[in-house]
Design goal:
Diaminopimelate Epimerase, Chain A, domain 1, 18-stranded mixed β-sheet, 6 helices, alpha+beta
């Protein structure tokens, strides 16, 4: 069996930045163990698979795998999948509806941006959290701790987020996934995302984290339209909008590579 693989840099307008995703279009699902093995072999933060949907409410069913586990939502790999469908595979409808573990995800094109309609996951403040949290984050001063799917830690400012040097070994013992965030200097907010429990110490740009960051900052800043940066080494840029119980994330993508997987 041979499978075509596309590698796309998401949430960026230039190669070698943003977040790379491996995109594989299937006619039928492969065995779960095989898909996990392919993701492990690719060794990117996510490998995404999608198949034509039998459900009239969606065009494709979509699943995302880190090198170690399947996850319930991934923004950059969804954006990469939409880029492949719109620009390489000739999908000619105005929008794509993906059926996922997090419900229906709608993706459209707006000029040179891909716009994703995702769930809004407002994190709630935690009064109790691991005593080791500050030590995990290089003993930085913590403004507040919140949680929805992931722990969200508010820090003082952009510089603290940028310079934070996490202890991933300690983090893996206590926390599966963590977001750190602060107000930005030239954007509305900045963030970084760590997921050592899922086999990713630091993810370059994380759409699912922004399902939590957008409602968090919309309330704090009193505005629904925002511009965000993820401050990983590769970096990534997201235009954000809070819309009732949904969020919109807009970003660019770049085509890097097409390859072929041979399965014996």
């Amino acid at each position: 069996m041979k499978l075509t693989l596309y590698q796309i840099d998401a949430f960026t307008s230039k190669l070698f930045s943003g977040n790379p995703a491996a995109v594989i279009h299937l006619e039928h699902w492969l065995d779960d163990v095989l898909m996990q093995s392919i993701a492990m072999e690719n060794n990117l933060s996510e490998t995404v698979f999608f198949v034509p949907s039998a459900n009239k409410d969606s065009d494709f069913d979509i699943r995302w795998f880190t090198p170690e586990v399947e996850i319930n939502l991934c923004g950059h790999a969804t954006l990469a999948s939409a880029y492949v469908l719109f620009n390489i595979l000739g999908f000619d409808k105005p929008g794509i509806r993906f059926s996922s573990l997090s419900g229906i995800l709608k993706v459209t094109r707006e000029d040179n941006l891909i716009c994703m309609d995702f769930p809004s996951w407002k994190p709630e403040r935690l009064d109790i959290y691991p005593d080791e949290l500050s030590a995990m984050l290089d003993n930085v001063e913590i403004v507040g701790v919140y949680k929805h799917r992931d722990i969200l830690v508010e820090l003082l400012n952009e510089e603290v987020v940028k310079k934070c040097n996490p202890d991933f070994s300690l983090m893996k013992k206590h926390v599966d996934k963590m977001i750190i965030t602060a107000p930005g200097k030239n954007v509305d907010f900045v963030s970084r995302f760590f997921a050592p429990g899922a086999g990713i110490d630091e993810d370059p740009v994380t759409g699912s984290a922004h399902s939590q960051l957008i409602p968090f900052w919309a309330e704090k800043l009193g505005k629904n339209e925002m511009h965000a940066l993820q401050l990983s080494k590769r970096g990534g840029e997201i235009w954000c909008e809070q819309n009732d119980e949904r969020v919109l994330m807009k970003g660019k993508a770049v085509y890097y590579m097409k390859g072929e997987i041979t399965l014996h």
